[in-house]
Amino acid sequence: MLEEQRSNLTLRKKSAPGLNLLFAMFLLIFAVLACSSGSAKKCTATLTYDGKTFTGEDASSDKATRNACNKYCREADPGYEAMYGVWLDSPAGKAAGRPSKEEAIFKDKKLMDYVTVTCANECLAKIKDGKAKAETRCD
User: Fold this and answer.
1) pTM score, two decimals?
2) How far apart are CA 116 and CA 122, in angstroms?
3) Distance of alpha carbon 47 from alpha carbon 75, whole angstroms
4) Segment 79-99, tens digit of pLDDT
C-alpha cells in the first residue's frame, strides 16, 4: 500500500512539469490569437496642395494626415528639395551613396527633422488655414 502511494506521488510530480508546459503553451497561443484577431482600424488621409495629391495611412486619423504631409514634404516641398540637393552634394550625401529623397531622411537627422517636424507642421498649419485640403477616412 505504501509502495502504491509512492508510485502515485511520483507520477504526479512527473506530470506537473508537463502540465505546466502545456498550460504555458495554451496561454501563448491564446495571446497570439487574441492580439491578431479582428481587423485593425485603418485611416487614409488624402492631402491636396498646389494641385497635387498625397496620401498617408495609419490607425489614427491624425497620424494618417501627418503621414500625408510627410509624403508631400518628401516629394514636393521646395525647402526639402533645396536641403536635399545641398546634402546630396556634400561629403555626407556622397558617403551615403547619393540615396533618393525618400531614403535620404533615414541617412541624415537634419533631413528627417525637416520632413517630420518643420515641414509637416507647416503643412498641418496650411490645412488648418484652408490653404491645403485634407480628407481622412477610417475603416
Assistant:
1) 0.69
2) 10
3) 13
4) 999 999 999 999 999 999 999
